[in-house]
Each structure stands twice: as structure tokens, then as C-alpha cells.
Specification:
Blueprint lengths: L1 H12 L12 H15 L15 E2 L13 H11 L7 H9 L4 E5 L2 H12 L5 E5 L4 H9 L4 E5 L4 H12 L3 H5 L4 E6 L11 H11 L5 E6 L14 H5 L7 E5 L9 E5 L1 H10 L1 H4 L6 H16 L3 H20 L1 H8 L31 H9 L2 E2 L8
Parallel strand pairs: 1-9, 3-4, 3-5, 5-6, 6-7
Antiparallel strand pairs: 2-8, 7-8
Helix pairs in contact: 1-16, 3-13, 5-6, 5-11, 7-9
Length: about 375
């Protein structure tokens, strides 16, 4: 059974290797010693040897099954056969779809985030970011010119208010609008699966900084194709296109392609061109890359992915229902062996993400993974680390 093969292969990869390399060059032995630290907690990241449709995949980012079903390949071949304009047309079409003034296609979503943060913060400005922000945001902050880099508690309106209040009271520059604040959030957090209370955040920033110097950048990596009209994202679901300065959409997940898209106005775009080494020195995306992105977006625009998007909501609700009514699951939660953070009040939420974390103590994490494999589910363990 393929799921058993995957589990056994994964388990073998967690076996320490450094002790077996006494006669190998010290350079490689030291690297294996560092990897053994991850293996000790069954945390070594592994790659599946091959793909097999006999298991339910809960490990990849193929949320709409465009890759598995071959729909993206057919759309890609059709796109290439059109001999279309792959320079100016795709960004314009993407911008129109997202109700944005401009769209910039970057080689990856990771470096799109880094490149934007490198460019748009001027000396004296501040970055305020959710404490669970993605690694690309952390790296982008390091190369930015921001004078202040302040976290707030995850998805907490009160914590954000406290941080903004402290900046406002730190001197007249922020209060008057002479210096800017960029607030970094994600629409769906990839490890937690929860959704940003974006409307409340925007209202707070507008109330506290009426000059408009507190603006937002939102990473929509995990809402692209999954949330909003035709998978256009959280911002468009909430009708906040005019309120968010920068939106980042990743094409490597639901769209089954690669690259990232920066949605912004012309001022932001010009600033990126002027200041971002990460983006301006990376070269233009290749025609095949742009064609695959365009093919994915055409599937969204045409409505062909709507059923798959609806299925995600249906399956999430069904999954919550099963978990919260299963007596064994209930007993495991009571015994402290299982935690499902998003299960609380799930029926009151109007929208669900496709990410539902199930947390277990590290000493028993092998059991749920093995049980899932026996039931034809392919899963992946994660660590409390970003």
C-alpha cells in the first residue's frame, strides 16, 4: 500500500546518520549532525519518492487539484498554442481580475515579499507585523530601511492597538503623517489556518492615523484560489481593495504554477522599480512561467475552479463535524493528547480555510501519522517553529 510505503520511508529518514559517518569528510559529517537534531524530534523534512492517486493528499499546496487532475497542463498547453502577448497582457489581466491599478509578476512569492519590504519603507518609518508572520516577511524586514520593527500578538486587535498607540505617542512624526507605518499581515496563516480580522484592523488604523500614513501589506498566499469571488482572495471578499496598499498573491499553491504577483498602485510600483534590488536585479520571468500563471488565472476567471473552491468549504465543515462528534477524538482532547484550535465555535464562522491543524504532544506524534497512513491519508508533521 502506497501510504504505508510513504510512512516507512519517512520514518527511515528520521534515523540519525552522523554516527555512521566517522570516515567521511568532516564537512559532510557536521551537516548531518545538524540534520540529526531535526531527526531527533522526527522533524526532518522529506520529499515523497513519487506520486500516487490511491491516497488522499493532505501535504501539498494543490488545493484546487489543478495539478493532480491535469487541468493546469491542458490550460498551459492551450495558452502556449495561442502565441499570446506574454509581456504586457498577463499583468493587465491579473490587475483587472483583482481590481488593482497594477500587477507585477515576480519569480517567487517569497522574494516578492522581500523585494517589496526592501523598497517601500523609508528611513524613520516603522513596520508593525503579526508575530506569526512568514519567514519572507522576517527577511524582508531585515533588508528594509525601517527604523522600528514591532510585532503584535497574533490576530489580536487589542495588541495591534497598543503597538500603534505606542508609535503614535513616540513623537510627532507618526502622529502628523511625516513618517509611515506599514502593517504586515496574512489573509490565512499557513501553520495556524486562521483568517486575519482584516476589516477590524483597517478600521483601527484609519481611526488612529487619519493622515493615511498607516497602510497594510497582506500576504494572500493561502487565500488565492480558495477564498473570495472566484478565488480572488480575502481582500476582495471583504471589498477592501481601496484600503490595502499592497497585496501579494502566490501562484505556486492553488494555481499549481510558480511565481508571485504584487498588486499595488503606480506609486508603489515606481518605488519598487527604484529601490528593490531583490526584484529589479532578478531578471524578467520566462515566457513558460508567465504562460502557466496566465493559464491558472484563466481557470479562475472562467469560473472553472468554483466547484473545487466550494468543495474546500464543504469538506472543511464536514471535517469539523466529524472531529467534534467523534467520541474517541473527544476523549483524546479531554486527556490532553489532542488539540484542534480551530474547532472551537467552528459553526459560527462564515468562511473556513483549507488548513486545519491537529496538534499532539511530540512524544505521540507518530501514532496519528501512522493511523492516517493506514486509512489512505498522506499527512505531514510540523514543528512549532516558523
Amino acid at each position: 500500500m502506497y501510504s504505508d510505503i510513504l510512512f516507512k520511508t519517512w520514518l527511515q529518514e528520521q534515523t540519525p546518520r552522523a554516527p555512521l559517518m566517522k570516515n567521511e569528510p568532516a564537512f559532510y559529517r557536521r551537516l548531518e549532525q545538524s540534520l540529526d537534531k531535526a531527526r531527533k524530534d522526527n522533524g526532518l523534512i522529506t520529499v515523497k519518492p513519487r506520486w500516487d492517486d490511491t491516497v488522499v493528499d493532505l501535504t501539498t499546496s494543490d488545493f484546487l487539484s489543478l495539478n493532480r487532475t491535469g487541468r493546469i497542463r491542458e490550460a498551459f498547453k492551450s495558452e502556449l498554442a495561442r502565441h499570446g502577448d506574454f509581456v504586457s497582457a498577463p499583468p493587465r489581466e491579473i490587475a483587472d481580475f483583482h481590481n488593482s491599478e497594477t500587477a507585477w509578476i515576480a519569480h517567487s512569492g517569497f522574494f516578492a515579499n522581500v523585494g517589496v519590504l526592501e523598497a517601500v519603507l523609508l528611513p524613520g518609518d516603522a513596520i508593525v507585523y503579526d508575530e506569526l508572520s512568514h519567514a519572507s516577511t522576517i527577511l524582508g524586514m531585515k533588508v528594509s530601511m525601517a527604523a522600528e520593527k514591532i510585532p503584535f500578538k497574533h490576530n489580536s486587535l487589542d495588541s495591534l492597538r497598543d503597538v500603534l498607540e505606542s508609535l503614535k505617542n513616540s513623537g510627532p512624526a507618526f502622529a502628523s503623517g511625516e513618517q509611515s507605518i506599514l502593517i504586515c499581515v496574512e489573509s490565512v496563516y499557513s501553520m495556524e489556518g486562521d483568517i486575519c480580522p482584516l476589516k477590524e484592523f483597517v478600521d483601527l488604523a484609519k481611526e488612529m492615523f487619519p493622515a493615511g500614513n498607516a497602510q497594510f501589506i497582506i500576504d494572500e498566499a493561502h487565500s488565492s484560489g480558495v477564498i473570495g469571488p472566484k478565488g480572488s482572495g480575502l481582500v476582495q471578499m471583504l471589498g477592501l481593495e481601496k484600503e490595502i496598499s499592497i497585496r501579494l498573491h502566490m501562484c505556486s499553491k492553488a494555481l499549481a504554477s510558480t511565481g508571485g504577483v504584487i498588486l499595488c498602485n503606480k506609486t508603489i510600483r515606481s518605488t519598487i522599480i527604484q529601490n528593490s534590488r531583490a526584484l529589479t536585479y532578478s531578471g524578467a520571468p520566462s515566457f513558460p512561467m508567465v504562460a502557466s500563471i496566465r493559464a491558472g488565472y484563466q481557470l479562475l476567471i472562467s469560473g472553472e475552479t468554483q466547484k473545487a473552491q466550494d468543495d474546500i468549504q464543504r469538506n472543511a465543515k464536514y471535517f469539523f463535524e466529524l472531529l467534534t462528534t467523534d467520541p474517541i477524538c473527544e476523549e483524546a482532547i479531554d486527556e490532553g493528547l489532542l488539540t484542534i484550535p480551530l474547532a472551537d465555535d467552528w459553526e459560527q464562522r462564515s468562511i473556513h480555510s483549507h488548513i486545519i491543524p491537529i496538534k499532539t504532544p511530540s512524544h505521540i506524534q507518530l501514532y496519528p501519522k501512522e493511523r492516517a497512513a493506514s486509512d489512505w491519508f498522506c499527512t505531514r508533521t510540523t514543528q512549532e517553529k516558523r
